């Protein structure tokens, strides 16, 4: 008889007390805030104001020098707020809790302590399998910020980033159409006596909603495509206007794209973004048109799109300008940092008061859904499937 494979060791299978039974006594958190080093990310997870609140609650915050520079927060501001400034990133990553905006690099994972806790975005389209392998080898518990849910089942981090991203996508389109940026010189919006700019948006979530708000507010003509009629109807209600919408009919998509000045990909999903616009169709768009993918962290609905960076954000293909930066919200780093910080500080204070991370995990389903690694076990079904890891249901570890 062949050997039976099991993801558990003999010790794991022995009866034990509940693994997450911990004291509800207030605890002191030791948090590391590193300087972002990848994708030209400019945001910072905690602002000086948030640090001050945490320090007054008895927590220790270690901030790497220069961590807030991209969002115009100085080391001196963090120091005055009570944070310790570290000049060695190894020391920051060695803290029991590390909070970042984007996932750590493999080198940074090497600095982390075994069984520590990581909170950051995931952006699976930007990661390789070995990223997860290195985290798992250190038995790290990793929480994807964009997967966190509140008591209403919504995703607050994803929502706030979507609001910023949707608005930014439209502002970006306006910049890329401008003559000084080698655009075709079309003003985004509507001017009396001049045909309004035509914008096509794929998706019906928060990014699409805020992109539509910004575009219609400027006077542009907007058309939205999505696979679900119910979502399109709800979007019209949220926007409080009968904005033109359509299902993903290939003929309608073709006609809209051949006329439009701007196309924005705004499909939000936990899985890989589905392909909607084939490269052949992009090649038929008018010269000088702009394509922006707002959810590049999960891929793109445009087959011609490639991942780009803030340093080199665009490329031109078939005379169509493509923008494929994964972290669009970082263009407005100070606003984004404040929004994220407001969210993180609420969670961190609650974690400390309720008795620690494991107590919070055991009590809140919204946190459970965000854990893609629990002490080295792969606990997020979509990520495990995408990178071919054995999936372990988190419920096996909590009661």
Account of the 3D structure:
It is a single chain. This protein is an alpha/beta fold and 399 residues long. The protein has 2 domains: 30-154 and 333-396, Rossmann fold; 162-326, Rossmann fold, CATH 3.40.50. It is 33% helix and 14% strand. It contains 14 helices and 15 strands. It has helices at 48-56, 75-80, 89-93, 106-111, 129-137, 156-177, 206-217, 229-239, 250-259, 279-282, 333-354, 357-363, 365-368, 381-386; strands at residues 30-33, 60-64, 84-86, 97-99, 117-120, 141-144, 198-202, 221-225, 245-246, 262-265, 290-293, 314-317, 320-323, 371-374, 377-378. It starts with 29 loop residues before the first strand and ends in a 13-residue tail after the last helix.
Brief account:
By secondary structure, this protein is α/β, with parallel strands linked by helices. It has helices at 48-56, 75-80, 89-93, 106-111, 129-137, 156-177, 206-217, 229-239, 250-259, 279-282, 333-354, 357-363, 365-368, 381-386, and strands spanning 30-33, 60-64, 84-86, 97-99, 117-120, 141-144, 198-202, 221-225, 245-246, 262-265, 290-293, 314-317, 320-323, 371-374, 377-378.
What is the ordering of alpha helices and beta strands? EHEHEHEHEHEHEHEHEHEHEEEHHHEEH
Query: In what order do the strands lie side by side in the largest sheet?
Result: 3-2-1-4-5-6-14-15
What name goes with the CATH superfamily of the largest domain?
A: NAD(P)-binding Rossmann-like Domain
| Overall morphology | globular
Cα-based radius of gyration, to the nearest Å: 23 Å
The percentage helix is: 25-40%
Assembly context of the chains: single chain
Domain Alanine dehydrogenase/pyridine nucleotide transhydrogenase NAD(H)-binding: 177-324
Family: Belongs to the AlaDH/PNT family.
Keywords: Oxidoreductase
Protein name: alanine dehydrogenase
């Amino acid at each position: 008889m062949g050997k039976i494979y099991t993801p558990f060791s003999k010790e794991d299978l022995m009866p034990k007390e509940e693994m997450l039974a911990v004291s509800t006594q207030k605890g002191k958190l030791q948090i590391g805030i590193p300087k972002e080093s990848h994708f030209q990310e400019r945001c910072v997870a905690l602002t000086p104001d948030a640090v001050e609140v945490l320090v007054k609650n008895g927590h220790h915050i270690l901030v790497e020098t220069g961590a807030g520079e991209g969002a115009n927060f100085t080391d001196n501001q963090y120091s005055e707020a009570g944070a310790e400034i570290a000049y060695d990133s190894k020391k920051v990553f060695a803290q029991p809790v590390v909070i970042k905006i984007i996932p750590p690099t493999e080198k940074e994972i090497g600095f982390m302590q075994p069984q520590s806790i990581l909170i950051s975005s995931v952006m699976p389209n930007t990661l390789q399998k070995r990223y997860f392998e290195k985290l798992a080898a250190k038995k790290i518990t990793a929480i994807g910020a964009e997967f966190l849910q509140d008591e209403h089942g919504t995703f607050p981090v994803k929502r706030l980033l979507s609001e910023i991203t949707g608005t930014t996508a439209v502002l970006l389109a306006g910049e890329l159409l401008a003559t000084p940026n080698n655009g075709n010189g079309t003003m985004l919006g509507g001017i009396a006596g001049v045909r309004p700019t035509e914008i096509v948006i794929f998706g019906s979530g928060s990014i699409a909603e805020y992109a539509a708000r910004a575009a219609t507010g400027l006077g542009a003509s907007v058309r939205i495509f999505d696979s679900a009629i119910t979502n399109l109807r709800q979007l019209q209600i949220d926007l409080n206007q009968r904005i033109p919408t359509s299902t993903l009919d290939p003929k309608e998509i073709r006609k809209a794209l051949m006329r439009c000045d701007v196309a924005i990909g705004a499909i939000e999903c936990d899985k890989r973004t589905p392909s909607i616009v084939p490269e052949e169709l992009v090649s038929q768009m008018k010269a000088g048109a702009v394509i922006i993918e707002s959810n590049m962290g999960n891929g793109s609905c445009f087959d011609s799109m490639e991942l780009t960076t803030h340093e080199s954000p665009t490329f031109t293909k078939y005379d169509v300008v493509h923008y494929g930066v994964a972290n669009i919200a970082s263009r407005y780093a100070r606003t984004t940092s404040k929004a994220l910080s407001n969210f993180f500080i609420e969670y961190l204070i609650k974690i400390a008061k309720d008795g620690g991370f494991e107590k919070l995990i055991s009590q809140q389903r919204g946190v459970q859904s965000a854990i893609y690694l629990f002490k080295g076990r792969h606990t997020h079904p979509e990520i495990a499937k995408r990178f071919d890891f054995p999936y372990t249901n988190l419920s096996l570890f909590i009661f």
